[in-house]
Write a structure and sequence with these properties.
Layout (H helix, E strand, L loop, with lengths): L16 H45 L6 E6 L3 E7 L13 H11 L9 E6 L13 H20 L6 E5 L12 H7 L1 E6 L4 H20 L1
Parallel strand pairs: 3-4
Antiparallel strand pairs: 1-2, 2-5, 3-5
Helix pairs in contact: 2-3
């Protein structure tokens, strides 16, 4: 029987049978993990899309398009943007009572989801220098922190899921060259992060357990 070229070593001798089998096993394992990663990635994208659809429906039914917008980005995940105009007084960080209600109802759609959530405050490039806020860094950070505290206190989010940060004027979504563009940059972003493989596995495990409990009940 002729020896296949792929089974011949560097010295022209046939490779041991175990080496060929090991190589096949490694290839199969690699293929398996690539498929697993692809399936997990598709599942988490589908999850983000479903969350986005629920939020968009709430926004549409309550005519809040000027206040809340959503988008899914490759880098961040699902970004839910709240316009500063409807949340805070200029140069202040206390959340309007009306805005709290909207934040609460949108965040309630996320309570039972496993995703980590980042709350990010942003300003335009208009300088601020007050006793409370010496710069836009402090203002944007305080606004993000106030939203985080509200989620913890009102909706009992797990602290492990939440982070808050202020970016001042340094992450604009539009040039700070017009009043309208400056308004776009003054915002709070609530970012729903993608699940990693371990988080996806744990989430599916809990869903299965809850399903079994409901069937038994």
């Amino acid at each position: 029987m002729p020896i296949k070229k792929s089974e011949v070593g560097e010295m022209g001798k046939p490779s041991p049978a175990w080496m060929v089998s090991y190589s096949d096993l490694v290839t199969q394992l690699l293929t398996f993990f690539i498929m697993l990663f692809a399936l997990s990635a598709a599942a988490t994208e589908d999850q983000l899309k479903k969350i986005k659809e629920k939020i968009d429906r709430y926004v549409f039914l309550n005519q809040l398009e000027k206040f809340v917008s959503t988008k899914i980005t490759q880098k961040e995940g699902l970004v839910v943007t709240f316009s500063e105009k409807y949340m805070f007084d200029s140069g202040k960080a206390e959340i309007y009572p009306e805005a709290k209600k909207v934040i609460q109802e949108i965040a309630s759609l996320l309570v039972d989801e496993p995703n980590r959530i980042s709350i990010e405050g942003h300003t335009d490039n208009t300088p601020i220098n007050t006793l409370e806020f010496p710069s836009n860094w402090e203002l944007s950070t305080k606004r993000a922190t106030n939203v985080l505290k509200y989620l913890l206190e009102e909706l009992k989010f797990s602290p492990k899921r939440l982070t808050a940060a202020g970016f001042g004027e340094w992450h604009p979504v539009a040039p700070n060259d017009t009043f309208e563009n400056k308004a776009k940059n003054r915002r709070v972003d609530l970012i729903v992060r993608r699940l990693d493989i371990d988080e996806m596995r744990e989430w599916k495990k809990k869903l299965t357990e809850n399903l079994k409990k409901s069937v038994k009940g």
